[in-house]
Design goal:
The chain is of the alpha/beta class. The chain has helices at about 35, 45-65, 85-100, 110-115, 160-170, 180-185, 210-225, 235-265, 280-290, 300-305, 310-320; strands at about 1-5, 10-20, 25-30, 75-80, 105-110, 130-135, 140-145, 150-155, 265-270, 295. The strands form two sheets. It has a five-stranded mixed β-sheet with strand order 3-2-1-4-5, with helices on both faces. A five-stranded mixed β-sheet has the order 8-7-6-9-10, with helices on both faces. Helix 5 (about 160-170) crosses helix 6 and helix 5 (about 160-170) runs parallel beside helix 7 (about 210-225). The chain binds 5'-O-[(R)-(carboxyoxy)(hydroxy)phosphoryl]adenosine (KG4) and zinc ion.
Length: about 350
Amino acid sequence: MLVLGIETSCDETAVALYDSERGLLAHRLYSQVEMHAEYGGVVPELAARDHIRKLVPLIRELLDGAQLTLSDIDGVAYTRGPGLAGALLVGASMGQALALGLGVPAIGVHHMEGHLLAPMLENERPTFPFIALLVSGGHTLLADVVGVGEYNILGESLDDAVGEAFDKTAKLLGLAYPGGPSVSKEAEKGQAGRFKFPRPMTDRPGLDFSFSGLKTYTLTTAYEHQDENNQLVDQTRADIAHAFQEAATDTLVIKAKRALKQTGRSELVIAGGVGANRALREKLAALAQRENINVFFPRPEFCTDNGAMIAYVGCLRLLAGESEGIAVAVRPRWKISELEIPGAGLT
Ligand code: KG4
Ligand code: ZN
């Protein structure tokens, strides 16, 4: 079964072709990041309008590149939620319209399920059950992934997501949008040990996270170290970025290790945009060696939003017999705990 996947939940227009026999055939992505940079964050209305402009040409380019045509498609998957309502509606409308026109089934996919299962797109893939550390701009969670559709949430952020904390830290340090990559770049110039930031909620049991206190700590430190012109000198900015990144990534590693201990699992999967962070990847690789466990990272382009993960999950669920009616319904606040094992809802 050849499935076209469409992702438009936020600021990337992404499409892919996944075949149940041959695997991932092609994927394309257009990032709106430059358009939103001017505003220092994603502007939902602009995002939706840009998806409208880019989606059709991107699907054409995808099919041409794979030397396939629309008539080769056996099913269409699109991101149904969570995400920005207007942006989601563009992908959902296009997905439903294409499916209807081609006479093939359509399926709305949960964006986070896409991230959780993205490591399955790689040659070296984990085996169920495994622990997933999902770290994106909207979510920070640890899940026990028992099988497809069986996600037991072990802990999540009580306030800001870790990606959001990176983005806000970038903003307060005057670094470019998007924040994650620029904090990471700045941190490389930082001096280790000049500042020591707290590792929130690691001194008590449990697997929940909280990043808003760390953000405030970063803000206070930056404020206290301004020069007489209320500016940060370059080295101080880099040192603060370094201390923030160390604290944020240490916190994630401490909790991931705790989740592995608690469940007795021996495989850990990293998903979501912050999974592209080099410091985090290095620390988790060291943890894997120390604790004799396996850590799986999708390639960075499959950590951040992409169409491949949507096509893959859509293919699994379509093969299990699931599909949508023709109504275009998106779920901007869809909870991952509401998902079921593929085909479980069928009678
Ligand atoms: O998964 P994603 O592409 O979008 C969703 O939120 O669903 O994640 C985006 C988040 C942003 O907060 C971005 O700043 C962060 O991932 N990010 C990073 C890095 N690359 C992206 N954070 C830290 N280091 C990075 N290298
Ligand atoms: Zn995402």
